[in-house]
Amino acid sequence: MSDLIELRDRMRAFTEERDWAQFHDPKSLILALVGEVGELAELFQWLPADAAAERAREEHLRRRAGEELADVLLYLVRLADVLNVDLAEAARLKMANSASRFAPEAVRGHAPEKR
Amino acid sequence: MSDLIELRDRMRAFTEERDWAQFHDPKSLILALVGEVGELAELFQWLPADAAAERAREEHLRRRAGEELADVLLYLVRLADVLNVDLAEAARLKMANSASRFAPEAVRGHAPEKR
Amino acid sequence: MSDLIELRDRMRAFTEERDWAQFHDPKSLILALVGEVGELAELFQWLPADAAAERAREEHLRRRAGEELADVLLYLVRLADVLNVDLAEAARLKMANSASRFAPEAVRGHAPEKR
Amino acid sequence: MSDLIELRDRMRAFTEERDWAQFHDPKSLILALVGEVGELAELFQWLPADAAAERAREEHLRRRAGEELADVLLYLVRLADVLNVDLAEAARLKMANSASRFAPEAVRGHAPEKR
Question: pTM of the entire structure?
Answer without folding.
Answer: 0.96
